[in-house]
Structures are given as C-alpha cells and as structure tokens.
C-alpha cells in the first residue's frame, strides 16, 4: 500500500461531458484531457441529482439528496441535515490539512464542511483560483493535504450569457443532438465553449504547479462536473443529458494511471467511499455509495443500477430515475412542465428538438427508454405491451432503492393526484 496521497478534488459547474477526452471534437480542453491521458477516464459516470447543490452535497457525503437534506440550492435555503459529514471533515480527522480554492456550493455553514482554510474567500475568477493553488502548493507542511477546487465556469452569468470568456466560432461548434440546430443555439454553445476554454486554462496551471512542486506522482487528482450541461432537457432533468458527468482520476503511485477508460457505471455518491478506501479509511454504514477503487485500478467490478433524483430548482418538481443496463425509467411525482429550462433568460435562445410543442408539454407519469436504440430518450415505451416486464423490473429497482434509503416521498408525498398515482406505482412493486 503506497503512502497516503495528497488529494486535489476539482469541480466545475454545468460542463457535463463536453470535453475533448469524451469525444467532443469542437471544444478545446487540452489541460483536462491531459489528466485523462495520464489517468483514468470514467466513461459512465452520473450525478445523484441534476442540479448543483444536491449533486455536490452527494459527492461530499456519499448520500443521496433526500437523505442528506440538500434537495434544493443552498442559496435558496436548503442545508445539510444535522449529523451529515462532509468529506473534508472526514479527511481532517484522518490527518489531512484541508483547504478550499474557489466556491463550494454544498453547505452554507462553514463549520459543516471541515475546510479549514479558504484560499480565495469564495467564488473567484478562474485564473485567481489557479494562482491561489500555485501558492498553496509552495507552502511547507508536515501532513498530506486535501485541496477542494471549485470553479464557477462554465455556468451562465445571470442575464449576461457565459461570462467574460471569448466565445468559440459559432460555425465550428456542434449543437447537442436533442436541440434544434439554429443560429441562436450555435451562438450559445460557442459562448459555453469559450467558458470551458477559460476553465481548462486554469486547470492546466494547477496541474503544472503540481508537477513543478514534485507532487504529481503522490497526489490523487479528481476532476468532476456536478451535473449535465445547462441547456433545455439536460440540467434539472433526469434525462441522460442532465445526469451525465465528467469524472477523471489520476494517482500514479496508487495505480490510477495509464490512459485507461473505466466503463463501470459510477454515481456521485461513490466518490466518498472510493477516496476513503484509497487512503485506508473506513466508510460509515450510512454512506449510500460504494468504493470503485478496484475499477479505477483496472480491476473488474459488477455493475449496479444508477439512481438519480430531482426535487427543487426554481419550483418543486420531484422525480426519481433508475438506469439498469440500457433500460431507463423515470417516475414523475408532479404534473409539471416536461423540462425545466435553466437558461436564466425570459426567452431562451436554444429550443429542444422534441417533444412536440415543448413549451406546453407536461411530464408523463412514467417514462421508459431503451438507451441502446434511443440514446436521447425521444420514444417513451412505458405503455408499450412488449416493455411491461422491463417497466415492472425497473419500478421494483426504484421502489427498493427508495425504501432502502428512506426517501421522504414515501412518507410525505405530494398530496395532488399525480403524487398519489406515482407513489402507488412504486409502493405496489
């Protein structure tokens, strides 16, 4: 067993998997791609929730949002339940110096997260974050360190697009397959990619500083996005475009290297038990995830279902989702809009290619998709006779998970007719 590594955990907003190392040819991300080239790229990583604070809190606690309490955004009042333990607190007790550069968005109480030092005082410019990390790596210390790095990019700025970065050329971008390919969509994707380039430049500086200070071989570097991309029918939805995340890990002296691809389905709740396993610490019984350290080192592990949930973004829109193999089920507990548009504009510039009349479409009660033939979830099979066995099996998977993790929807469900109908479905399996 190698000595305990330093840990640098880098997170970004809203990037999904829109990176060169995930096969996107029109975006520039050489710094992040280089970490994947020298480490392990997780090809099937998903978030526990398709919005920021719940997803990040799950990565920090190893528990699903309905359990840890952050079912909405912390700046709107949601908070970790009493007794929840942040990864940084666990590592501090295990002998690590802990620090934060940039933002964290999983708790509003500094005493809750265990990050002893803030290098930037909160949200900061990407290059200011990189500069703070460079200084941090130069400080003398006697113990291993845990540095949590939180970038705002490529999140939208309220009412001003994607911030100060220079956009890419709209004629050279690729519009996402589930969106209408229009001039406005191309402009927005070009701005999105400009923000990704700015993020990547800062990540490049951080990685170079690790090498220059001699830390690269003995540091576990993790790069993760919080949830899917910030476009209609992605972020704030349980469709694949909303729950797909980038997840890259590297620790050369710990066997996590070699330009490998890990195909194991991984959930955001798996990160806490994996990190603790890698440093020789036990996870508590309340952690919902499992260690995937063996898979990161190239070993074989059995696949398990991927679960994700949506509760509150701008309004209460509870849904629960399970993917097992290539079959995906979503149960919608409220009769809301078919998707929540996260563009933060009164008139969004990007429009989904489906469903028909998207602005007036509503959630169906149950959605079932065959991701092998229908990767963008256009054809709902929930009422198809040939798919009823698959529907029932996935409903059972969902019900077992909700009961096993004590989902609050089971005991305090929405009281409208849709909520009762959805609850009846998962209770009857």
The number of helical segments is 12
Helix content: 25-40%
Strand content: 15-25%
Ends apart, CA distance between termini: 45 Å
The major β-sheet equals: 8 strands, mixed
What is the average of the pLDDT values?
Answer: 93
What's the β-strand tally? 15
Low-confidence stretches are none
| Main sheet strand line-up | 5-4-6-1-7-9-2-10
Bulk shape: globular
Radius of gyration: 21 Å
Question: What series of H and E elements makes up the topology?
Answer: EHEEHHHEHEHEHEHEEEEHHEEEEHH
Structural class: alpha/beta
Quick gist of this model?
The chain is an alpha/beta fold and 429 residues long. It has helices at residues 30-38, 52-61, 65-68, 87-93, 110-113, 126-137, 183-212, 240-243, 271-278, 293-296, 388-404, 417-428; strands spanning 6-12, 40-42, 45-46, 97-102, 117-118, 145-150, 219-225, 244-245, 247-250, 260-262, 266-267, 306-312, 316-324, 327-332, 366-370. The strands form 3 sheets. An 8-stranded mixed β-sheet has the order 5-4-6-1-7-9-2-10, sandwiched between helices. Strands 12-13-14-15 form a 4-stranded antiparallel β-sheet, covered by helices on one side. A 3-stranded mixed β-sheet has the order 8-3-11.
Spell out the key features of this protein.
globular, 12 helices, single chain, four-stranded antiparallel β-sheet, alpha/beta, eight-stranded mixed β-sheet, 429 residues
Describe this structure in words.
By secondary structure, the chain is of the alpha/beta class. The chain is 28% helix and 17% strand. It has 12 helices and 15 strands. It has helices at residues 30-38, 52-61, 65-68, 87-93, 110-113, 126-137, 183-212, 240-243, 271-278, 293-296, 388-404, 417-428; strands spanning 6-12, 40-42, 45-46, 97-102, 117-118, 145-150, 219-225, 244-245, 247-250, 260-262, 266-267, 306-312, 316-324, 327-332, 366-370. The protein has an 8-stranded mixed beta sheet, sandwiched between helices. Strands 12-13-14-15 form a 4-stranded antiparallel beta sheet, covered by helices on one side. Strand 12 (306-312) and strand 13 (316-324) form a beta hairpin. Helix 1 (30-38) packs across helix 7 and helix 6 (126-137) runs parallel beside helix 7 (183-212). The protein is globular. It starts with 5 loop residues before the first strand and ends with a helix.
């Amino acid at each position: 067993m190698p000595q305990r590594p330093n840990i640098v955990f880098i997170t970004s907003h809203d990037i999904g998997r829109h990176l060169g190392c995930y096969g996107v040819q029109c975006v520039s991300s050489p710094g992040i791609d280089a970490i994947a080239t020298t480490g392990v790229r997780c090809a099937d990583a998903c978030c526990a929730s398709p919005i920021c604070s719940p997803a990040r809190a799950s990565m920090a606690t190893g528990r699903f949002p309905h359990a840890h309490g952050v079912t909405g955004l912390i700046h709107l009042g949601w908070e970790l339940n009493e007794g929840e333990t942040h990864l940084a607190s666990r590592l501090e007790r295990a002998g690590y110096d802990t620090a934060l550069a940039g933002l964290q968005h999983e708790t509003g109480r500094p005493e809750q997260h265990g990050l002893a030092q803030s290098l930037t005082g909160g949200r900061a410019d990407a290059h200011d974050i990189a500069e703070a990390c460079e200084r941090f790596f130069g400080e003398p210390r006697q113990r291993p360190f845990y540095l949590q790095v939180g970038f705002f990019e490529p999140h939208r700025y309220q009412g001003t697009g994607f911030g100060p970065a220079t956009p890419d050329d709209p004629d050279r971008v690729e519009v996402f397959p589930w969106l209408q390919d229009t001039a406005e969509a191309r402009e927005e994707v070009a701005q999105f990619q400009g923000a990704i380039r700015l993020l990547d430049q800062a990540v490049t500086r951080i990685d170079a500083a690790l090498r220059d200070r001699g830390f690269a071989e003995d540091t576990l570097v993790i790069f993760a996005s919080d949830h899917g991309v910030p476009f209609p029918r992605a972020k704030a939805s349980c469709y694949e475009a909303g729950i797909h995340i980038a997840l890259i890990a590297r620790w050369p002296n710990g066997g996590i290297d070699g330009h490998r691809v890990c195909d194991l389905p991984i959930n955001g709740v798996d990160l806490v038990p994996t990190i603790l396993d890698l440093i020789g610490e036990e996870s508590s019984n309340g952690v919902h995830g499992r260690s995937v350290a063996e898979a990161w080192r190239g070993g074989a592990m059995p696949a398990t279902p991927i679960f994700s949930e949506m509760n509150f973004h701008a309004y209460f829109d509870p849904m629960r989702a399970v993917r097992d193999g290539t079959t995906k089920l979503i149960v919608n507990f409220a009769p809301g809009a078919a998707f929540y548009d996260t563009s933060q504009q009164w008139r969004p510039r990007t429009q989904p290619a489906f469903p028909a009349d998207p602005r007036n479409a509503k959630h169906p009660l149950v959605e079932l998709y065959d991701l092998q033939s229908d990767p963008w979830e256009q054809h709902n099979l929930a009422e198809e006779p040939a798919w009823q066995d698959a529907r029932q099996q996935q409903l059972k998977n969902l019900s077992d998970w909700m009961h096993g993790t004590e989902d609050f929807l089971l005991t305090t469900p929405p009281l409208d007719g849709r909520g009762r109908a959805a609850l009846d479905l998962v209770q009857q399996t």
